[in-house]
Design the sequence.
């Protein structure tokens, strides 16, 4: 198991997440896909930490921080979704076009 | 006192400033007495300088210089520093002239207190007179030609102011302009001469220039050009032909002012300048000859014009021109001493004549000789002093004019016999017209009863100066001639190196250091080289000249003694064409007016060409051409350049609009997709480089 294997897995995860963000119609699905992308980053951090600086804890600490931030972000996203859903009565992202110029 | 000669112009100048700016203008202002006091101080200094020069141990020439300014110049790649000096240079002629100028100016000022009494610009008149005198004194004492030239120009200004003193009237206005412009025409020649001198010598100091000439560094042709330039300047200032036209009109000013101009300051300046730069003339025989003939022609023309004039001041003005011609002629033939001697004596009797004429005019309020007559009964003092002046100017033996004119005639006789005869004839005319004036004004019975009964002798402030000047007119000649004083004081400058061929044309120089004894020796030595300095006419010629002068006076007496002058009228009728010629002043004025009119026509033609050819064709045509070019440029700009600019803009616009139409609006995921595609493209580009 080399660094490349981890990075490949992380890249796949990221692309899957990106694909989900671009293709899911439901906002909840999009939020979940975003989580995937976050986790791809976390895998990268852990892998770089493990292979480049095995003696330190900076990488893992940053990964933990990101997990926390992601949780907070999802909370904000879901709260926004609740407010939108109450006003528009839908959770499909193609209907969210109030801000178009 | 000689070391304080610089005080002379400064005192007079200061006095004139004070008189001009202090106090209010008042017909009875006491300020003129300040000018008179200042002039008395000047006279004292001048007399002491003269005394030490004539009888004391004073060594002449005396020179003293101060640094004035320095300037660094670079000409033709060579840099050098020029030290300009200002200072005084007192030689014999200067010492004599100083006395003459200050004395005449003092007399004129005292006289003017009465004559100008009640004039609205009483104070200003005296300021002008003082200023005029200051300028003349500055010219006399200056050791630098540059300062001399400045004073020369200041004198031009003051003559302008004095001639046009009564500027409300048209005559003085025209006269002052004429005087200023005519003299300015001459000044341009002098200016060029000065430039040339400086270019050649590199200094304006007279002594240095003289040294330059003495050492023979100056090429003869350049010397001639310089001499001619100086001569043109002198011709303007000293009223020589053909630039004398201003002087007869210059008598439009106040009569005492005319006396100053005609006797001491203005016209003497030209002669004096020639004498100051005499070494230039000595180096150029042809210029000497030109000066001689110019003076001769002037003397003759002016004397002939004086024969027919009936304006008392105009006759005197013509006589001034004529006498100046005598002086210039004398200088031209090498008679340095005689020319300056005549300048001195002439100053006295011409001032006297003008002041006497002023006294007459003051009494009868007219300039017209035909309305005077018999005034000897009413104005005995004026009559007697005028008699002395007229005798002096006519050259009657014993009086001052005789001595100087005799010397001039002798010098001319030794130079050229033809010139002598013309000059002798002129001298006879002088005697004739002066006595004509005298008889018309004073002799016989009155012609205009009203004027006559009105006439009265002038007050003592007028007659006093007349008497003093009469004393000088009578005795100055004999006094200066006595004991060889004149040849000591007015010794001809020497020039050591002379072109061999021309040595004969120039009189034998008198050594300056031995000048004191030269007068005595010259009498004893009969075997000099060529001519002697104190030359005399042959005795038979001398007697003939005196006899002819007396005949001329007698002729004048018989023609003009009575209340009528039938004889004169008969002569006039018989010689009508000549009289007309003389009355029109030999058509000199008409000539100059014609010249000016011609210049006017030429200017008008030039203006027409400018307006119709230059402006129409070149200026307007150029504008039109530019307009056409501008139109073409404008069209090109509109069609090609602007459409290119607009095309680029609308291309960007169209591209943007077209691209935007590909995107469905408001779809976040689509935006994101494009962002992702762009990002990955960019990342690919960057990473694969």
Sequence:
């Amino acid at each position: 198991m080399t660094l490349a294997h981890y990075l490949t897995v992380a890249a796949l995860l990221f692309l899957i997440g990106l694909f989900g963000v671009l293709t899911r119609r439901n906002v909840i699905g999009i939020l979940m896909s975003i989580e995937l992308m976050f986790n791809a980053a976390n895998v990268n951090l852990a892998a770089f930490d493990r292979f480049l600086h095995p003696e330190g804890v900076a990488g893992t600490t940053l990964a933990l921080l990101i997990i926390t931030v992601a949780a907070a972000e999802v909370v904000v996203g879901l709260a926004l979704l609740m407010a939108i859903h109450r006003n528009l009565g839908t959770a499909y992202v193609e209907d969210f076009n109030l801000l178009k110029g | 006192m000689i070391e304080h000669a610089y005080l002379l112009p400064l005192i007079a100048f200061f006095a004139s400033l004070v008189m001009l700016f202090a106090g209010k203008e008042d017909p009875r202002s006491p300020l003129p007495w300040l000018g008179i006091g200042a002039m008395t101080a000047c006279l004292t200094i001048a007399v002491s300088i003269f005394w030490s020069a004539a009888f004391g141990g004073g060594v002449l020439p005396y020179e003293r210089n101060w640094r004035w300014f320095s300037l660094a110049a670079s000409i033709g790649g060579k840099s050098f520093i020029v030290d300009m000096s200002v200072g005084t240079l007192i030689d014999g002629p200067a010492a004599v002239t100083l006395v003459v100028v200050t004395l005449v100016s003092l007399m004129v000022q005292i006289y003017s207190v009465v004559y100008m009494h009640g004039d609205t610009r009483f104070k200003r008149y005296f300021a002008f007179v003082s200023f005029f005198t200051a300028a003349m004194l500055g010219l006399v004492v200056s050791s630098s030609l540059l300062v001399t030239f400045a004073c020369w120009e200041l004198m031009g200004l003051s003559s302008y102011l004095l001639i046009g003193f009564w500027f409300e009237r048209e005559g003085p206005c025209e006269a002052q302009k004429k005087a200023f412009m005519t003299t300015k025409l001459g000044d341009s020649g002098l200016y060029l001469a000065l430039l040339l001198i400086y270019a050649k010598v590199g200094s304006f100091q007279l002594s240095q220039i003289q040294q330059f000439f003495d050492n023979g560094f100056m090429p003869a042709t350049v010397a001639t050009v310089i001499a001619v330039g100086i001569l043109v300047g002198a011709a303007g200032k000293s009223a020589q032909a053909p630039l004398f036209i201003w002087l007869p009109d210059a008598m439009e000013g106040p009569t005492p002012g005319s006396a100053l101009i005609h006797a001491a300051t203005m016209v003497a300046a030209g002669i004096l300048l020639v004498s100051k730069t005499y070494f230039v003339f000595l180096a150029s025989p042809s210029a000497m000859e030109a000066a001689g003939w110019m003076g001769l022609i002037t003397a003759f023309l002016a004397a002939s014009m004086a024969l027919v004039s009936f304006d008392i001041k105009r006759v005197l003005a013509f006589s001034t021109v004529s006498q100046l011609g005598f002086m210039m002629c004398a200088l031209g033939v090498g008679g340095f001493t005689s020319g300056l001697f005549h300048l001195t004596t002439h100053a006295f009797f011409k001032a006297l004549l003008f002041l006497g004429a002023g006294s007459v005019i003051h009494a009868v309020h007219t300039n017209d000789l035909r309305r005077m007559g018999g005034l000897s009964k009413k104005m005995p003092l004026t009559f007697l002093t005028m008699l002395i002046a007229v005798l002096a100017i006519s050259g009657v033996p014993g009086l001052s004019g005789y001595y100087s004119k005799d010397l001039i005639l002798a010098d001319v006789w030794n130079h050229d016999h033809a010139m002598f005869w013309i000059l002798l004839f002129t001298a006879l005319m002088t005697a004739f017209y002066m006595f004509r004036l005298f008889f018309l004004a004073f002799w016989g019975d009155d012609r205009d009863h009203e004027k006559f009964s009105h006439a009265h002798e002038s007050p003592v402030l007028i007659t006093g100066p007349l008497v003093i000047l009469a004393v000088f007119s009578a005795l100055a000649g004999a006094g200066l001639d006595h004991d060889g004083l004149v040849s000591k004081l007015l010794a001809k400058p020497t020039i050591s190196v002379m072109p061999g061929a021309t040595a004969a044309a120039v009189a034998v120089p008198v050594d300056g250091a031995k000048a004191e004894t030269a007068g005595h020796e010259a009498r004893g030595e009969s075997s000099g080289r060529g001519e002697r300095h104190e030359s005399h006419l042959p005795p038979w010629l001398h007697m003939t000249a005196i006899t002819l002068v007396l005949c001329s006076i007698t002729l004048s007496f018989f023609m003009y003694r009575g209340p009528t002058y039938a004889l004169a009228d008969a002569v006039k009728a018989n010689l009508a064409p000549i009289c007309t010629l003389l009355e029109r002043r030999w058509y000199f004025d008409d000539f100059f007016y014609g010249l000016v009119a011609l210049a006017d026509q030429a200017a008008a033609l030039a203006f027409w060409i400018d307006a119709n050819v230059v402006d129409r064709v070149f200026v307007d045509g150029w504008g039109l051409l530019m307009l056409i070019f501008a139109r073409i440029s404008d069209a090109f700009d509109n069609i090609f350049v602007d459409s290119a600019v607009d095309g680029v803009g609308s291309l960007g616009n169209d591209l943007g609009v077209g691209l935007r139409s590909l995107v469905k609006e408001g779809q976040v995921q689509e935006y994101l997709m494009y962002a992702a595609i762009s990002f990955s493209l960019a990342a690919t580009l960057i990473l694969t480089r």
In short: Residues 36 and 63 of chain A are 14 Å apart (CA to CA). The interface with chain B takes residues 18, 21-23, 93-94, 96-97, 99-101 of chain A (CB under 8 Å).
